[in-house]
Write a structure and sequence with these properties.
five-stranded parallel beta sheet, 43% helix, alpha/beta
């Protein structure tokens, strides 16, 4: 049976999703790709009992799903995750919402910022860090999902899940990519999966945007504390990549 690729997008619009848009869309026809965007998938740790699993030509399942979500399905799987700096990703998230319409902002943050909160990048980041929906679905998301917890979950803090997340990094059927080496990782992935034609970019590279270094000291420190678990996970992933090199 053909191997199926599971792309864990951490966070949902993070570098894993960039990999999917820029490369995987060229490697696989649309009928072979399934995006798990239903909120049902974001609140569970296992594939729903009684829900038929994807069959036929499906080769790629992608979305903010936790490790272990597909355990027990019939097709052999290869897990893929791409990690980058969580503070920089949060700043990009804030920048995107500053340019978004009210519907998109409310969907991502659960509220609409007042004029002062949206006045500049520092204020927007500070406001987003206070929003409960953002804390539940974005801060610590990579750690929770890698530990096997659903994206939308209560209970343990992300820092408490770090040991389980680090343990999952050693899965034999996991490939780890780093945001700074996305092109090389995409090529490695195509060789592992035996995809033809060769990978080609279908989405141009985005222009570099400011990261956390663009913030004032106080907001930057607050953001660093809020993303500490995901930063620790990134460090563990970088170490795993070095060991496999």
């Amino acid at each position: 049976m053909a191997r199926r690729l599971i792309l864990h997008c951490l966070p949902p619009d993070g570098p894993g999703c960039v990999l999917q848009r820029r490369f995987l869309d060229a490697a696989l026809p649309q009928r072979a790709r399934v995006e798990l965007s239903d909120p049902m998938h974001q609140s569970r740790s296992r594939w729903p009992e009684g829900l038929p699993e994807p069959l036929g030509p499906v080769r790629l399942l992608h979305g903010p799903t936790p490790f272990g979500y597909f355990d027990g399905l019939s097709a052999p799987v290869l897990h893929v995750m791409v990690l980058g700096d969580p503070a920089d990703a949060f700043v990009r998230f804030a920048q995107r919402l500053m340019l978004a319409d009210a519907q998109e902002v409310r969907a991502a943050a659960g509220a609409w910022p007042d004029e002062a909160a949206a006045a500049d990048l520092d204020s927007m980041v500070d406001w987003l860090l206070d929003q409960s929906l953002v804390r539940r679905t974005r801060l610590g998301a990579a750690t929770r999902l890698t530990a096997g917890a659903p994206l939308i979950s209560g209970g343990a803090e992300a820092a408490e899940m770090l040991p389980a997340a680090r343990a999952n990094l050693s899965r034999v059927n996991l490939l780890i990519g780093l945001e700074g080496r996305l092109d090389a990782f995409a090529q490695d992935l195509s060789e592992v999966m035996g995809w033809t034609p060769p990978f080609q970019e279908v989405e141009p590279k985005a222009a570099a945007s400011p990261g956390a270094e663009a913030l004032g000291a106080s907001v930057r420190a607050r953001l660093a504390a809020a993303t500490a678990a995901d930063r620790a996970l990134l460090g563990a992933a970088e170490e795993a990549v070095r060991e496999d090199a």
